[in-house]
Amino acid sequence: MEKVVASPRQIQPPTYGNLITILSIDGGGIRGIIPATILTYLESQLQELDGEDARLADFFDVIAGTSTGGLITAMLTAPNENNRPLFAAKDIKNFYLEHSPKIFPQERGPFGSIINMLKLSTGPKYNGKYLHGIIREKLGETLLHQTLTNVVIPTFDIKHLQPTIFSTYEVQKSPYLNARLSDICISTSAAPTYLPAYNFKNQDSEGNVKEFNLIDGGVAANNPALVAISQVTKQIFHENPDFFPIKPMDYDRFLVISIGTGSAKVEKKYNAKMAAKWSVLGWLLHGSSTPLVDVFTQASADMIDFHISIVFQALHSEDNYLLIQEDTLTGTDASVDVSTKENLEKLVKIGESVLKKPISKVNLEINLSKPIENGGTNEDALKK
Description:
384 residues, alpha/beta, phospholipase activity, lipid degradation, monoacylglycerol lipase activity, plant defense, PNPLA_dom
């Protein structure tokens, strides 16, 4: 149980520049390699402008992440001994390549699927011990309020059946939220059926103790972009002087970059005829995927994208919202836990290829991303 003490934040308020800049990173297990690869490119472009020491945390007022995106968020914003970001973006991809096989050890051989079924009948697929250990090792005792820019990391409280949002904006009003980043990351990554739910207690400076019973934030907001926007809007409503003279609906003052971890929409691997016959186990295991988790995480991410897209369009600020997503994953590409060397290397290549694809917007009629005519590539958009 950590006793927390808040200290003054040293982040430049958004009025220091022309825009409130928000970076959002989806959940998706090992598919976090895809946004990590994209962010490596974005940070390299910023370094061309401001030198090799430039980091993403220097350019975004808010970085939000859910599940694997929450871990990336913490790695980008946690301070090292020199009070600079603990990880450069390029280091995060290597982190995934090195540690994913130990976080998600694979059952090989002809009995692998049977072993996985037996695991699901007795508990989560993975015990999480290696993941918990490596997160604690990398993030140490760093607290939420110590991040180098504002962060927003959603989780879900399984005891109270409601989201718990760990936000640097909320720490002053709710100091019990000022938990260790390691505890927050373990919580937001606790995907049902894959990793165990996580319990911890936190104590504020007045001795008040708060107990958390948390699972993956993806059940509430697998795409945390709207949560981040809401956190900023709440500060504007409460007349935080950092945001003066911005108004709540000044969406032309927002710049939102939302990076997904890919989906298997094009593959169409499920259908109603198939699902109608599934037992409880069928909803939990279908080949290398978990249909129930796929359904609620994708539904959450898409609903948020639909909402943001429509609002930004309605307020004539559509150019201020960029979603980078890949809907054409197939087979093990779309898995959250297939950590073979071949699959990990393929995810890196997918991340690189997404940069070369045209900018797309979700088309509600066909439920897929549709390229924007003469819009350029995602790489072009990030440069712009």
